[in-house]
Here is the input.
Amino acid sequence: MEYVNPLTGFRVDGRRPNEMRQLKGEVGVVARADGSALFEMGNTRVIAAVYGPREIQNRGQQVNSNEALVRCEYRMAEFSTGDRRRKPKGDRRSTEISLVIRQTMEASILTHLMPRSQIDIFVQVLQADGGTRSACINAATLALADAGIPMRDIVTSCSAGYLCSTPLLDLNYIEDSAGGPDVTVGILTKMDKVTLLQMDAKLPMDTFENVMELAIEGCKAIATYIREVLLENTKRLECQRG
Amino acid sequence: MVALSEGEKHFIRGGIEQDIRTDGRRRLQFRALSVETGVIPQANGSARVRLGGTEIITSVKAELGKPSILHPDQGKVSIFVDCSPTAEPMFEGRGSEELSAELSVALQRCLLGGKSGAGAAIDLSSLIVVEGKVCWDLYIDGLVISSDGNLLDALAAAIKVALSDTGIPKVNVSLSAASDEEPEVDVSDEEFLQFDTSSVPVIITLTKVGRHYIIDATSEEESQMSSAVSVSVNRHGQICGLTKRGGAGLDPSVIFDMISVAKHVSQQFMSLLDSEIAAAEAEAAE
Here is the structure.
């Protein structure tokens, strides 16, 4: 299958190789959560809710009493995928993604400021069209910021792939299931540090560099957008205060 | 979980007694309702319903399947509810299973009628494509995004909205000569059939706090309830299902009283919902 049109250079959904899908972020979508956000990357749509910092619910989980405990659960809605299938809760894929999100977010949260407390991050996928991992991390960042949890920096994530000898930014479901390499990168934008890097399939070293560079560019673009959303929200709150 | 001090408990109870609740509502008044359709483009129909702090997303998906042997002239409808941990940290892992199952069963009871399919809100025979061979399987999924009490009423309302948004693709069947062969089915992706949702009921839950009962309770108010009765009523004022929750017993005369109140409230709620659906559809059409 042609994933990049050889004549026009456009992708299956009409994007250019280095073009991202439409982003949409909204803060404060869950009324009762301490912080929450909706994040959309094209048709991929996720909701993140943050509860905490609060008292540790289960003392057995506490590892280090000088730092906050960060927990994360990733869940897909029954209707999120194209064909409806009932999956058991806590399947291996969800567990793995929960772990990845937790580790990525933990890297940016200033956990030492909140000893003996716990922060819960719940991400719920409403629609999956590739790049759910990245969308979840971006949503979690927005939700954590909404909850007012101290963070080192904004973590953003974006994926990139390599199909038809072209590096492609922000793969959708069709491109993701094409079997080519899929590089997911998460970075701390201001500090310019990589906190998440995953790749499947194989790729020559020099191509990998290009693809990763592209994904980092994507992350930076998302970070700019997330800052805009947060700024807009802060302005709105300021207005409300009068 | 709601943690309330003695003072807060007293305040909530006293307010209900005096017909002014903590958010300024009267006993038989709903919170602000907002409705949005077509939120899940991948589904045949979907809706997002907000009732105060409670938020529900429902989707309706139709798949071609085989009718059951017992009812070859009927399609199948199943309802599942899932409570997302975004609504309440308690729902993480398997924590939501019990509540999800309770809500699913209550909705099935109110919307799907008896085992034979008689009295169902959705005309099951309209889902048949070829009798005994092909029918539509309708999957209704409810997802609780945010929970602030009165989940059942909000879910039922969301299902009603999602069904009114649902379009079932038109199917052309080319019947082969041999009757035991599988019929060839051609699903149109341009023509859609709308559902008749006029007989889909709404659910009104009356929560009894002290001597009085209230509608559309928040989770703080629900924590103070002694018992609750959920009545599902259709457009003609007929009762389609009834569920009582909570430990305390109720006098039969009180139940009859509650049912008549629920009937009265349901007609108001139904017309409110209808106007919201019309507004949401007009917005989606633009």
About this structure: Residues 6-285 of chain B form a domain with the Ribosomal Protein S5; domain 2 fold (CATH 3.30.230.70). The first helix of chain B runs from residue 6 to 17. The two ends of chain B are 41 Å apart (CA to CA).
